[in-house]
Specification:
Layout (H helix, E strand, L loop, with lengths): L6 H10 L9 E2 L2 E2 L2 E2 L1 E2 L8 E2 L2 H15 L3 H4 L12 H8 L6 E4 L2 H12 L8 E5 L4 H13 L4 H4 E4 L10 H11 L3 E7 L11 H10 L3 E5 L18 E5 L12 E5 L46 H17 L1 H23 L5 E4 L12 E6 L3 H9 L2 E2 L1 E3 L3 E4 L8 H20 L1
Parallel strand pairs: 4-15, 7-8, 7-9, 9-10, 10-11
Antiparallel strand pairs: 1-5, 2-3, 6-12, 11-12, 13-14, 14-17, 16-17
Helix pairs in contact: 1-13, 2-10, 4-10, 5-6, 8-9, 11-13
GO biological process, one term: L-tryptophan catabolic process to kynurenine
Family: Belongs to the kynureninase family.
Function: Catalyzes the cleavage of L-kynurenine (L-Kyn) and L-3-hydroxykynurenine (L-3OHKyn) into anthranilic acid (AA) and 3-hydroxyanthranilic acid (3-OHAA), respectively.
Length: 428
C-alpha cells in the first residue's frame, strides 16, 4: 500500500479497519479535555469497559454467597482459572492442558526454573540476551547464587555487535553451539522490551534442544502481541504477564505454559501446594501431593479471583477477535506509524532512527525511536499535548500502536504533534 501523510487518508484507513470499533471498548485518559493518543500498551494496557461487569460479578457473588461462592456462583471460584485454558491456548499456540494462570511473572519464572534449571557439575550455564529486562537479570543472579554458583561463571549474555542495535540470530545460534555441553538453560525475552526486536523462538529453541538444554521464554512483550506456536515449537516452558497487551490491569496475574511432554515426568521437581493437587481429591486434605495433570499441576495457592476477573474479560475479547486479525492490523498500523515518522523526519532538523528491526518478522507492536538532537523536553511536550508514550535514556521513545485501541488517525495526529514539538523548540 502507498501511504499518505494526510488526515483524510488516515480516516480512510480507519473506515476500512474491521477492528476500529474496538476503540469504543476501552476507557481512555484525557488530557486538555481530549482522549489521549496511547502508545504505552507495552507497559500497561488500557482498561476495557467490560472489565467492570466481570469484577462486579465476583463482588456481588462474594456479598450474596460468601464462602459458598466457591461452588455456587455463576462462575464458581474453585475452578475459575479453568475458563482461561481454551482462549489462552489459542493466544499462545498451545494445548489447553499446557496453559494456566497463577501468581505474577517473575514469581512464575522462578517457579519454572525450579523444574527446568537443574545445574550439574558439567552442565550449569544459562544463556540470555544482553540487556534483558532487569527483573530477569535479578532472577538469574539469585537463582545462580541459590545453587551455589557465581553469576559471572554461569550467565552467558548474547551481545549486540558493535554499532548495531539488535542481536543477530546467527550470533544466538553460534553462542548456543559454543557453550554446548555446558548449557543447562536458554531463557530469553521473546520480544526485547527496549528495542522491540522479536526473536526467532522456533529456531532458537531447536538449537538449544540440539545441545541438550532446556529452553524457556519470557513472553511479557509477546503474549497477545505476537503469533505464537509454543506447542509446535517444542518450547519447554514460558511465562507472561497479562497487563501489557492483554489489558488485565496493573500488576495482574501471569500466564504459564508447560509443554505436555513434561506433564507425566515424575522426575521433574516442582514446588507444590494445595491448588496444584488432584482436583477431585483436593478437599480430602491428603498428605501426599498428587499433581493435577497438565500445567495446572504447577499451581501452588488458590487463585486470586478478583484479579483474574479483569484478565478473563480481556481474554474473552481476544477470543472474539482472534490473533490473526490482530496481527494483520498490527502490521498495517505499525507500518503506517513508521511511514509517518519518516515523513516528519523530512520536515524537521532533528533526525529519527528507528532501532526496531524493519523486517516485519522481527518486530511487533512497538517502534523504539532514537531522537537525535532531541532530549527529554520533547517527551514532556508530547505528554502535555496528549501523547502518552515512554521515555528511555538517553533519548529513546518507545511507541506501541496496540491494534485493539489505536487508530490510523492517532498515528497521523501524533506526527503533527511531534513536528509541532520540535518546531516550537526551534522557534524559541
Amino acid at each position: 500500500m502507498i501511504f499518505e501523510n494526510t488526515l483524510e487518508f488516515a480516516k480512510k484507513l480507519d473506515s476500512q479497519d474491521q477492528l476500529h470499533k474496538y476503540q469504543d471498548e476501552f476507557i481512555f485518559p484525557q488530557v486538555n479535555g481530549k482522549k489521549v493518543i496511547y502508545f504505552t500498551g507495552n507497559s500497561l494496557g488500557l482498561q476495557p469497559k467490560r472489565t467492570k461487569a466481570y469484577v462486579d460479578e465476583v463482588m456481588n457473588d462474594w456479598a450474596n454467597l460468601a464462602v459458598e461462592g466457591h461452588f455456587y456462583s455463576e462462575k464458581p471460584w474453585w475452578d475459575y482459572h479453568e475458563r482461561f485454558a481454551n482462549p489462552l491456548s489459542k493466544i499462545v499456540g498451545a494445548l489447553s492442558s499446557e496453559v494456566t494462570v497463577m501468581n505474577t511473572l517473575t514469581v512464575n519464572l522462578h517457579l519454572l526454573m525450579v523444574s527446568f534449571y537443574r545445574p550439574t557439575k558439567t552442565r550449569y550455564k544459562i544463556i540470555c540476551e544482553e540487556k534483558a529486562f532487569p527483573s530477569d537479570q535479578y532472577m538469574f543472579q539469585s537463582q545462580v547464587h541459590f545453587h551455589g554458583y557465581k553469576p559471572e561463571d554461569v550467565i552467558v549474555e548474547i551481545k549486540r555487535r558493535e554499532g548495531e542495535h539488535n542481536i543477530r540470530l546467527e550470533d544466538v545460534l553460534a553462542k548456543i553451539e559454543e557453550v554446548g555441553d555446558e548449557l543447562a538453560l536458554v531463557l530469553i525475552g521473546g520480544v526485547n522490551y527496549y528495542t522491540g526486536q522479536v526473536f526467532d523462538m522456533k529456531t532458537i529453541t531447536a538449537a538449544g534442544h540440539k545441545v541438550g538444554a532446556y529452553v524457556g521464554w519470557d513472553l511479557a512483550h509477546a503474549a497477545g502481541n505476537v503469533k505464537l506456536e509454543l506447542h509446535d515449537w517444542d518450547i519447554d516452558f514460558a511465562a507472561w504477564c497479562s497487563y501489557k497487551y492483554m489489558n488485565s490491569g496493573p500488576g495482574n496475574a501471569s500466564g504459564c505454559f508447560i509443554h505436555e511432554k513434561h506433564h507425566n515426568n515424575s522426575e521433574l521437581p516442582r514446588f507444590a501446594g494445595w491448588w496444584g493437587h488432584n482436583k477431585e481429591r483436593r478437599f480430602k486434605m491428603e498428605q501426599t501431593f498428587d499433581p493435577v495433570h497438565g500445567a495446572d499441576g504447577w499451581q501452588i495457592s488458590n487463585l486470586p479471583v478478583l484479579s483474574l476477573a479483569p484478565y478473563l474479560a480481556s481474554v474473552d475479547m481476544f477470543d472474539e477477535i482472534g490473533m490473526d486479525a490482530l496481527i494483520q492490523k498490527r502490521n498495517a498500523i505499525t507500518s503506517y506509524l513508521e511511514f509517518i515518522l519518516h515523513e516528519i523526519d523530512k520536515e524537521v532538523d532533528s533526525s529519527f532512527e528507528i532501532i526496531t528491526p524493519s523486517n516485519q518478522s522481527e518486530r511487533a507492536s512497538q517502534l523504539s525511536v532514537l531522537l537525535h538532537g532531541e532530549g527529554r523536553s520533547l517527551f514532556d511536550y508530547l505528554m502535555k499535548n496528549g501523547v502518552i508514550t515512554d521515555w528511555r535514556e538517553p533519548n529513546v521513545i518507545r511507541l506501541a500502536p496496540v491494534p485493539l485501541y489505536t487508530s490510523y488517525e492517532d498515528m497521523y495526529m501524533f506526527g503533527q504533534i511531534l513536528k509541532a514539538g520540535i518546531l516550537d523548540k526551534a522557534n524559541l
